Automatic annotation (TrEMBL):
Cofactor(s) needed for function: Fe(2+)
Purpose of the protein: Involved in the biosynthesis of the thiazole moiety of thiamine. Catalyzes the conversion of NAD and glycine to adenosine diphosphate 5-(2-hydroxyethyl)-4-methylthiazole-2-carboxylate (ADT), an adenylated thiazole intermediate, using free sulfide as a source of sulfur.
Protein name, as recorded: Thiamine thiazole synthase
A Pfam family recorded for this sequence: Thi4
Protein residues bound to glycine: 229
Record bears the keyword Repeat: no
Residues where NAD(+) binds: 36, 55-56, 63, 127, 154-156, 219
InterPro entries xrefs: FAD/NAD-bd_sf (IPR036188), Thi4_fam (IPR002922), Thi4_prok (IPR022828)
Length: 254
């Protein structure tokens, strides 16, 4: 068989255009491909929902790749070890209750699980705004290619429709800020000091619907709540992603 460059190009364009067109309408749009967002997307997809994860960077994984200060290891506490096991991520117990995993394996297996469950990933796309109409709910996202945003080009975006949005954009809580800036009844208190025990123990409670149709998880949940940060312990990210998936699934079923 002789390889034809134009066929290769046509294969990429045709299949991705078809997927993008199909995902103009979905159940849940998860914004941010860090550990909480991937966990949330994977569990929602396992639950049979049509899920798209939008990540503005080239790679999925957010702040998990780098472990702690570029040592590619993460620590997960006892309470979240079952999620490492659920996703087949190997770990060793360093001291009682402190489970260490390799960050590259953790990102890869979370991502693989989400793909296997049927979540679609849209990398290199940035969410630049939300859609809120007469019912006062977030019902869609305004998206554009990240390079357009990075280059500051004046190119109009496209829009997708969804039944729920999960803000998993990390420390910046980008989507929540977009909503708050429009004058919505949503206050972003901003992230607090480093305090792992406190931050990890409260993040699941901070994982909630902060505006009709908009849920927060991961560091975005702590940033909205004015809660502390925790550094390279990742159990709270996995548990928060799990909590967001459960809340969204319950809301969409009701
Ligand atoms: O920051 P990030 O990894 O979020 P997370 O899931 O996890 C936080 C931890 O990595 C770590 C920590 C744990 O101890 O404190 O920091 O809360 O991933 C957030 C992702 O969202 C993307 C961003 O590129 C990153 O990969 N993102 C942010 N804004 C947008 C976005 C946007 N407007 N559109 C698309 N993606």
């Amino acid at each position: 068989m002789e390889l034809d460059e134009v066929t290769i190009s046509r294969a990429i364009l045709a299949t991705q255009m078809e997927t993008m067109t199909e995902y103009l309408e979905l159940d849940v749009a998860v914004v941010g491909g860090g550990p909480s967002g991937i966990t949330c997307a994977a569990l929602l997809a396992e639950n049979g929902l049509k899920v798209g994860l939008i990540e503005k960077k080239l790679s999925i994984g957010g702040g998990m790749w780098g472990g702690g200060m570029m040592f590619p290891r993460i620590v997960v506490q006892d309470g979240a070890k079952r999620l490492l096991d659920h996703f087949g991520i190997a770990s060793t117990e360093f001291e009682p209750g402190y489970h260490v995993a390799k960050s590259v394996e953790a990102v890869s297996k979370l991502t693989a699980a989400a793909c296997t469950a049927g979540a679609e990933f849209f990398n290199l796309i940035a969410v630049e705004d939300v859609v809120v109409k007469g019912d006062g709910r977030v019902s869609g996202l305004v998206v554009n290619w990240s390079p357009v945003e990075m280059a500051g080009l004046h190119v109009d975006p496209l829009t997708i429709r969804c039944r729920a949005v999960v803000d998993a954009t990390g420390h910046d809580a980008t989507i929540s800020h977009m909503v708050a800036r429009k004058g919505a009844d949503l206050t972003i208190k901003g992230e607090g000091y480093m305090w792992a025990e406190r931050a990890e123990s409260r993040i699941v409670d901070h994982t909630r619907e902060v505006f009709p149709g908009l849920w927060v998880c991961g560091m975005a949940a702590n940033a909205v709540a004015g809660e502390c940060r925790m550094g390279p312990i990742f159990g709270g990210m996995l548990l928060s992603g799990e909590r967001a998936a459960a809340l969204v699934a319950a809301a969409l079923r009701s």
